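can u pls check wat happens w/ fe (ii) ion
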Amino acid sequence: MRILFIGDVVGRSGREAVAAALPRLRAALRIDVAVVNAENASHGFGLAPDMANALLEAGADVITLGNHAWDRKEIIPYISETPRLIRPLNFPPGTPGGGSFMVEVPPGSGIGAGAMRRVLVLQTMGRLYMDALDCPFRTTAAELAKHRLGGPPGSMGLAAILVDFHGEASSEKMAFAHSFDGKVSAVVGTHTHCPTADAQVLPGGTAFQSDAGMSGDYDSVIGMAKDAATMRFWRKMPGERLAPAEGEATVCGTFIETDDATGLARRIEPVRVGGRLAPAMPAA
Ligand SMILES: [Fe+2]
Ligand SMILES: [Fe+2]
């Protein structure tokens, strides 16, 4: 299974760059499943339904959110009728939307060709320097208890399980990834908006990267125009309203290749396209 995960889309610049890059990346890397975090797509805060539709049309199979999930109120009715848009699993019971989605992937070639392959995508949110939520470790363990990773094609086993861990602290993300090493195909972090250089396959076979980075203009403060964002630190005042930086975005993400039979990862490599950051493209 070839999976592309794209980190937090920020503002118009991020949306346009991802819409342009996603079809090309899908083709160049022969992607089976593409997941996009879009919690900052709408002017840095939330996601509007038309923007979600545009990302789905560009080739996203699943869209994830985060702490900015409800910043655009129009997304609340939309998420109830769009199960492939997910919010953190550990939001309280009764919260609209779901925390996971099962993608049906057309049969692959080789062993077991002919059977649909199922991939579970779930998002959970950390608690260190974040909102007070139910435990992401325990809620994920409870969700995973309903599924099995790997197994013969056509069996009840899943070809892959991908977790978007939305959190601030790399320690919490690493502890989470080690907790589920060998039980999920990949744990990819979001929320900090900075791509980390720690992508690796852990000893038990789970691919991990603390943060995929944002898809936005990196001449900014985590995607927002730098002058207003900087003044908030110099003066203890809210100051000017934050707005996304509008320069060319770098599309940041990560590419994961897994073994369908075991569901475990073979490799994880960063993807960076356009804008100010050094480009990175895995070998197809
Ligand atoms: Fe974000
Ligand atoms: Fe976030």
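The longest strand covers residues 117-125.
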